[in-house]
Amino acid sequence: MKLKKGILIHNQLEQGYEVVHINSGTVLHTALVTEPVNFHGMVYTPQYEDNARIAKRDWRALNREEIRGIQAKDKRNDYNTIYLGDIPEALKACFKRLDLANSKSREEVFEKFSGDAALTKELSSNLNSFLSPLADNKPFNFHCIGTNLPNIEMVACNTTKLPKDFKPKDIKYMGMHNDGTQSMTIHTAHKFGNRISINLGNDTRSFLFVNLSMIQALNMIGKKIDLKKNNVNIANIPKFFFEHFPDYPVIRVQQKPYQYYIAPTDNCFHDGSTLGNKELDITMVYFGAFQC
Ligand SMILES: [Fe+2]
């Protein structure tokens, strides 16, 4: 299926569209053999939730027409555009001094953050100088420092229902999803801002997304089934979309260390991936209404 005009990319990376790929759609997780994880003595095969849909692995470069179709122009905002860029050198230097990238566990990452108060203060000031202009004078707030093991094909998961002492092998990954919560509907999902995610690990990670807003996805589903009878809503929309449009392409952005993406993750299907990686994946995430 051809890409529709939907969520666009504003790409400020030196590498341009070399880091952007496209595939031929999604499959149920059972259709592909899951790659095992093997990291510092942890050896296991990741599990998925029953209906998890994952991106096919037939990635290719975008052709000229596809690049033209996905490039954002001047009508950019916080819900219709994905922004790609490098963080400023001063901020990068601060992160490098924390030496997060060589951490072997989530605990080690947090110890490094809390271990040096002066550096953490400098970091926070640099982060503010970087984020304030992107936030366009609107409030923004720290969301989390996320870690993922290497070689996890689709990293999103809900660990809140697991026991406190859960092990990585107990996690069930959810596959392509939207971040919508109960407080939003398909028609209001674009009003909740976006997120910025910075890669603080040593490996290149991937951000995968479908370039359609929730309303576009709903309208497409509405041409296949009765939306009311099927009670299509913000929580079950990925199931309906991927069932009826398995051939709609996924876009993959490869995010090198110290690069960021800004994405309206309530308003589009997406996931992250550490497939093929060797080291711990570390990200820092802020919520806001960022744009540039
Ligand atoms: Fe998400």
From TrEMBL:
Domain of life: Bacteria
Name of the protein: Uncharacterized protein
Species assigned in the record: Pedobacter cryoconitis
